Fold this sequence. Notes:
This protein is of the alpha+beta class. It is 32% helix and 23% strand. The protein has four helices and five strands. Strand 2 and strand 3 (98-109) form a beta hairpin. The radius of gyration is 17 Å and the shape is globular.
Amino acid sequence: MNRYIDENGKSFEENAMIKARTVAGAAKEAIVLADDSGLEVDALGGAPGVYSARYAGEHGNDQKNNALLLKNLQAVPAQQRTARFVSSVCCVFPDGRQLTVRGACEGTIAFEPRGGGGFGYDPLFLVGGKTFGELTAQEKDRVSHRGNALRKLAQELPAYLETGKDHL
């Protein structure tokens, strides 16, 4: 199996499904869980969105991605810097059924990086007066997009398994 999966979906849900189905195809009898996540900034029309990890052109270069985000928001006042982290989680079962959920965390974008924790856009994403980069792991988990998505998955999974119906 190719080590890299081409995330060519137009949404977080599509990319999570692509990853989960690709691994499920190789793993055969396993239950596979995959996530796709990123940052949506309202003043930028939802960008960087599904391109969050490669926003500045180089995949995974947090420093360049954050610098470009700040540059693109340079003239945007604080009250218009609303954003959200989004995580879509797709669970694929050996029989081909799937369950996909979405979690989000609403916040704003700071004017400069703060905090040394986390990764990606964490030093710029403000929630409750602190950036994700300033939160402890426990504080971040309580409000994070991934935590919200996984809690939603845990909540929906029993009913899904009972009915056996696919849904996004």
